[in-house]
Amino acid sequence: MGRRKGSKKKKDININSDETKVFVGIILTILSIALIISPFFDSHLFRSIVTTFGYSSVVFGFTTLYLALRFFSSKTIFKSWKLQLGLLFFSLTFAAFLTFWVPNEQLQSPTQFEFPAGMLGYNIHLFLLSYLGRFIEFLVLIVSFVVSISLITSIKLSQIRDYIEKTVENTGGLEFKGSLEDIKPQDLEQDDKRMDGIINGLDSKREEEQDIIFANDAPKSTENHIHIAPKKVVDENDMGLESQGPKYTNWTFPSLDLLQDPIVQPQNKDVFKKNALIIEQTLRSFGVLAKVAEISVGPTVVQYALSISVGIKVSKVRNLTNDLALALAAPSSSVRIEAPIPGTSLIGIEAPNPTPNYVYEKEMVAQLLKDKSKYELPLILGKDVTGKLIIRDLVDLPHVLVAGATGTGKSVGINSMLMGLLMSKSPDELRFILVDPKMVEMAPYNGIPHLLTPVITDMELVVNALQWAIEEMLKRYRMLKQAGVKKITEYNQQMGFSAMPYIIIVIDEMADLMLSTGVDVETKVVRLAQMARAVGIHLILATQRPSVNVITGLIKANMPGRVAFNVTTAIDSRVVIDQIGAETLLGKGDMLFKSPSHPRPIRIQGAFTDNKDLDNVIKFIKDQTEIVEYTDEVTKAQVVEAKGGTSAGADDPVFRQSIDVIINAQKASASLLQRKLRIGYNRAARLMDELEEAGAIGPQDGSNPRKVLISSASQILGSDSNDELPQ
């Protein structure tokens, strides 16, 4: 008879069928229970198990139970072969480790090994002991424990290594755990020891302050005076080489007593501990398992270094910036995440310090004077988030671009840089060209011998100064070539004194300069930035509008040193430091510094220079020099001979046209002549000088156009000039 319709064919039972898996799982479960309880019950079966495994049978029981769950459950956690292998490896190591501590006298009687680790542990121990010796066996067992824990918890061996190193360095540090414990803010008392071990920047700061040598303690006779004996090693008749010796041979540097003492506020550790726990709890509520591994207390910013669990994306932590700011009761724009912290595998969460300590110029200069021999042109920046003093050498940068919104500390930062240079360099070693469109920021520097020319406030003269710097650069290159050296330090060493002083050009507002002069300034700045480093000419450019129209690609490419104060948008931050981050700064000197040696920006609290400190230092410098000689060549337009060898003047048809232009416009400026006559800036500036000499226009009046003093061309060219003027 045929088979009935609708009858189903029974499935064959094989090793892969569900029934077989359940049956094997039941057998393994029973075996695991027997292994676990065998040391605590007395029967023939249990005594046999204890004889074989000893107390390690409990560990083998849990290993067998995990294997049984592989057959019962379909969850991924029970399918991991690494976890199974780690449990087996841990069980064997544990059995050998129990036997390791048994006295040598009992090794002769194997029956004594029922309760340490049974015959299994006995045989593993004897095998390792006979081939490796007792000490090497102990090391092998320790390594085996570490490897098995790594397999069980999925923690990389490199993470375990880093944790061990950190624990050795910082006693009382964090206890490493694979999963996050339940942490609540009210558990502060239980976590005091853990947090105390990870807070940095408090005690070290005090020790650092104790190491600083102030002027009252330092010997002034050796620190503050320069006595230079000029030595000539080059023939005086050689073309271009300067044979004149130093002018300020007994220069006295300003004393630290002129600067105000730092004001330090005490820090409350409990606040940092509480915030660390809040960060951990907030991240855990969003499914991010992390622990605060280190707390760095800076002057105005506290950095909480996080160690996150394996498998958590860094971007997930970055996206929680606003949530962390809300939990810490801080402005959302003031919390910055740095992932990773350079040189570590940790993520840094930077939040404002509730009790900020600003960085004063006195402590920075004191450190500079201790390490004065390390720097050619020291630039004082400030302190980083760990409280470390940051001073960089301008020669290594070699040009700096400073950008930041109004009121973020840009001008104060530039004053701090200039202050450090004035406190450590004499006028024979360093000269300045200062450009100040605001007319008031750098006005106090007028009258010091370090300047080549008074502070330039007229934008029309800046192009002349940059052109002079280019000519000076080319002149210096010819001098280096004749002396057979490649850079300024070798030349000065050959001459025996600072025959070729460094020149630093500081422009406080680049945006105004670019808008008024445009392409001429850009080409000259780029040329100086490309070539002037070897001959000791350096640029410090500042702007409060970091747009691509002001900071062009050519300028950025040649300005490797970048200082970004707080800016308004992330786009501005990208223009300055090529990445976001500057828009989250706190202001008041909070900056990001980027250099060729630090491609990733480091956060620094800039040094604060009070106006009183600046006035005291400048007054001390001015009192040393009764007469200061400045050169007009820096801002004077170069006189170029006209065609035919005669000087440009009344016979020049363009000069006649320029008179007509200024009379019609009733104002005179180089930019006006450029537009109307379609000539370059240099020729327009020369025409302005000639018009002033002829009495056609008045003298300079700041940034205002010059006044026109004539009403007709005949007053300059004569009675028949009207007929000669081109129509």
From TrEMBL:
Q: Which GO terms describe its cellular component?
A: plasma membrane
Q: Which region is the signal sequence?
A: none
Which BP terms in the Gene Ontology apply to this protein? Answer: cell division; chromosome segregation
Q: What UniProt keywords apply to this chain's record, in alphabetical order?
A: ATP-binding, Cell cycle, Cell division, Cell membrane, Chromosome partition, DNA-binding, Membrane, Nucleotide-binding, Transmembrane, Transmembrane helix
Q: Where is the FtsK domain?
A: 386-574
Instruction: Enumerate the transmembrane spans.
Output: 21-41, 53-73, 85-102, 122-152
Residues reported to bind ATP? 404-411
Q: Which PROSITE patterns match?
A: FTSK
Q: Pfam families per the record?
A: FtsK_4TM, FtsK_alpha, FtsK_gamma, FtsK_SpoIIIE
**InterPro entries xref list:** FtsK/SpoIIIE/SftA, FtsK_4TM, FtsK_alpha, FtsK_dom, Ftsk_gamma, P-loop_NTPase, WH-like_DNA-bd_sf, WH_DNA-bd_sf
Q: Which GO terms describe its molecular function?
A: ATP binding; DNA binding
The record, for SMART domains, names: Ftsk_gamma
> This protein is called what?
Cell division FtsK/SpoIIIE
Query: Which organism is the protein's source?
Result: candidate division WS6 bacterium GW2011_GWF2_39_15
